[in-house]
Amino acid sequence: MTADRLTILHVYPRQMGVSGDRGNVAALVRRAAAADIDTEVLEYAPGGELPTTADIVVIGNGPLSAMRSLADDVTRLGAPIRAFAADGVPVVAVGGGFDLATNEVVPTDGAPLAGFGVFDARAVRGAERRVNYFVLETRYPLLAGAPTRLAGFEDHATRIELPPEVTPFADVVSGGGNQAGSPVEGAIVGTSFGTHTQGPILPLNPQLTDGVLAAATARLGREYAPDPDRTATIDRYAREARATVDRYVDKAFKRIA
Fold first, then answer.
1. Per the confidence metrics, is the pTM higher than 0.70?
2. Which of 147, 141, 138, 152 is nearest to 216 (CA)?
3. What is the C-alpha to C-alpha distance for residues 204 and 153, in angstroms, rounded to an integer?
4. What angle do CA 152, 219, 46 make, to 5 degrees?
5. Three-state DSSP state, 146
6. In sequence order, what are the beta bridge partners of 43?
7. Can you tell me the distance from the alpha carbon of 81 to that of 115, in angstroms, rounded to the nearest whole number?
8. Helices 206-219 + 22-33 axis angle, to 10
9. CA 255/CA 13 separation, integer angstroms
10. Cα separation, 118 vs 193, whole angstroms
11. Are 110 and 211 in contact (CB under 8 A)?
12. Which helix (H) or strand (E) holds 233?
């Protein structure tokens, strides 16, 4: 953060951005503005020079073909991305970006792919295909009094293998989640989280956006306090969208073999 400007680093926006993932970046920017915090968005493309500083890192969703094309670059970036997370920079990894942020992605065919290693987990392809609305109770730290219920969309065929010492991102209310025997979803390490929740997740769940921004600003010794009058309309839209997910979650649920 330079001169009171929060730096958001968007990694692979073209390759890993197939599910409206720029919406997650936009939600961070708009929410920060409601707290009078200026932002700067930097986009990292394969082969480029990774910024040495960032306050939030976002990695979006993408297919296995994109992950394979990025393999060499992911190996090169692993250490600095892990260093960001270890230094308390929130890494928000969604969908295929979550898979890529684990230690290893194991496809149904071909060699495993090394991940960034932010989360001590493996993403194993070939699980039951889940295509459904997704309702969760998050374990990620939120602002005091914020609701822990999250809603979104789930579309993946991945089993996330977490060691017992790794905290899940959420408990599953409705949906598949990590598909590894326990009704949990995603992973948390420090202020970073990974999840297969799409939507995009941050615009749909402003309280989670607030949690990420609070973690990022606390690291810098600054308070995060968005103006509720400036967020009232977007909060209402998000609340109504989550209510619709809750209303139709069972009817919309579907499995693909």
1. yes
2. 141
3. 10
4. 60
5. coil
6. 10
7. 10
8. 70
9. 29
10. 9
11. no
12. helix 228-252
Residues sharing a CB contact under 8 Å with residue 237, sequence separation 6 or more, in sequence order: none
Cα→Cα distances 199→54, 93, 132, 241, Å: 25, 13, 11, 10
Give the residue carrying structure tokens 């293998």.
Answer: 161
pLDDT, tens digit, for every residue of 100-128?
Answer: 999 999 999 989 999 999 999 999 988 88
How many CB atoms sit inside 10 A of residue 20's CB? 14
- 130-135-138 Cα angle (round to 5): 115
Q: Which of 136, 116, 38 is nearest to 75 (CA)?
A: 116
- Residue of 98, 185, 101 whose CA lies nearest to 135: 185
Q: Which two tokens stand for residue 149?
A: 């219920």
What pairs with residue 9 in β-bridges?
Answer: 42, 57
Can you tell me the distance from the alpha carbon of 121 to that of 102, in angstroms, rounded to the nearest whole number?
Answer: 5
Calpha distance 140→51 (Å, rounded): 26
Any residues with CB less than 8 A from the CB of 152 and at least 6 apart, and which? 133, 134, 136, 197, 198, 199, 201, 204, 205, 245
Over residues 76-108, the pLDDT tens digits come to 999 999 999 999 999 999 999 999 999 999 999
| CA distance linking residue 31 with residue 28, whole number of Å | 5
Q: Cα separation of 12 and 14, whole Å?
A: 6
Among 215, 218, 96, 220, which residue's Cα sits nearest to residue 160? 96
> SS3 for 132?
strand
**Is pLDDT above 90 for 235?**
yes
Look at the block and give the residue holding tokens 């001590």: 120
User: Which tokens sit at 23?
Assistant: 């919406």
